[in-house]
Amino acid sequence: MPQLNNLLPLAARFMLLSALGFALMAACVKYVGSIGIPLFEIVAARAIVSLAISYLDVKRKRISVWGHNKLLLIARGAVGTAALICVYYSVTTLPLAEATILQYVHPIFTGLLAMLLLKERLHPSTLICILLSLLGLYFMVLPNSHGNPAVDLPLFSILIALLGALGSSVAYIIVRKLSQTEDSSVIIFYFPLIALPTSVLLIGDDFILPDLHLTFLLVLIGIFTQVGQYGLTKAMQTQTAGKASAYSYVQIIFSVFIGVLWFNEIPSLWTYLGGALIISGALINIFGLPFLKQLYKPDHG
Known about the structure:
By secondary structure, the chain is mainly α. It has one domain. It is built from 14 helices and no strands. The protein has helices spanning about 1-5, 10-35, 40-60, 70-95, 95-105, 105-115, 125-145, 155-180, 185-205, 210-240, 240-245, 250-265, 270-285, 290-295. The mean pLDDT is about 85.
């Protein structure tokens, strides 16, 4: 075990577990969506599992499920629900790798929102992250402007994916504010508490009664989500948030492999180029400018 700890710190192992959980969750969402389960029904199924697990977790801690700042908790749940709907829509309408990459432009929005709402200074590394992410987005959307159907991505789905990333950033800012007064389990509980009734109302007459196989997959979406959240939480508890979050980008690699093996999706060169720029920007944002110097430092043996 000492050798494993040296090669792969505990936080890294938890974050890899988190990345795998979220990648499998997205794959299940894409699969059940491809065979006709409505988007809002998928959201509702995930919310049911998450609500049950998070409620039991709050009761285990013997604290009130309602928290203190109820208005802000409801806002967190509402924003998180909107972001989840956008993310699930993009997963079901875009190749898995591309949908995952687009989720990782959230540092752009988080940095700008933190500056506007929390009055935080925008660091040079964050500015570089924003520029590289925008350039990466440009390369991913570029084939659309050339009219190449082989690598075109639906622009509407791209916009929805970006709205999901924006919603995730807003939710993150709200969580940072709530963490000053609320237990983390209460914050998590409000997410499915809002998502479940919202998605049930939006299903309308589109509800499809799933068979046993589809029911199992819908439950797996909730379970894989909890695995992802558990790994993420444990990673943040065992290492600094910045270093731990860097490992989350392995989810893109998992998604590429799952997309190829399960859905026969081969990412285009534009996806690799744009994704590389977005990931580079995110890592610079996490580790700062020295990371860029180290990355391109010549190896003299």
